[in-house]
């Protein structure tokens, strides 16, 4: 697969996490407290500006879901290896309200995640 392009978002930012499967995987399922290996791109909902991409670093990243933002903990389980999923995550499930000390605090984030493997 190639690096995904995230289309400009329209309308108001959602108040809850929005999960959309872009490609349905057919491999093992990600588990709530499992280890996942992913490729991902993240953009700001309002501006569409990319803030992070494993693709640009040229390598996937592996981590336990339990250590990630709530939006990933909720949005990745049930996804199958080989799949591509878009998550739109409000601030409460990302880096908290504006002024929270993180550069992305107060922002609604959009990620496209490719699930490479599960552990």
UniProtKB/TrEMBL annotation:
Matches recorded under InterPro entries: PPIase_dom_sf, PPIase_FKBP_dom
PPIase FKBP-type domain location: 33-119
Pfam families noted in UniProt: FKBP_C
EC number of the protein: 5.2.1.8
Annotated catalysed reactions: [protein]-peptidylproline (omega=180) = [protein]-peptidylproline (omega=0)
Entries under Gene3D superfamilies matching the protein: 3.10.50.40
Sorted UniProt keywords: Isomerase, Rotamase
Molecular function terms from GO: peptidyl-prolyl cis-trans isomerase activity
Superkingdom assignment: Bacteria
Family: Belongs to the FKBP-type PPIase family.
UniProt protein name: Peptidyl-prolyl cis-trans isomerase
Lineage: Bacteria, Bacillati, Actinomycetota, Actinomycetes, Mycobacteriales
């Amino acid at each position: 697969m190639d690096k995904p392009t995230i289309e400009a978002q329209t309308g108001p930012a959602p108040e809850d996490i929005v999960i959309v499967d872009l490609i349905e995987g057919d491999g093992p399922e990600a588990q709530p407290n499992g280890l996942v290996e992913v490729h991902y791109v993240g953009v700001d909902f309002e501006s569409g500006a990319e803030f992070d991409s494993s693709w640009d670093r040229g390598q996937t990243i592996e981590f336990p879901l339990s250590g990630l933002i709530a939006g990933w903990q909720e949005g990745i389980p049930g996804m199958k290896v080989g799949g591509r999923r878009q998550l739109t995550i409000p601030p409460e499930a990302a880096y908290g309200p504006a002024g929270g000390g993180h550069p992305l605090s107060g922002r609604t984030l959009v990620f496209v995640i490719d699930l490479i493997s599960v552990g």
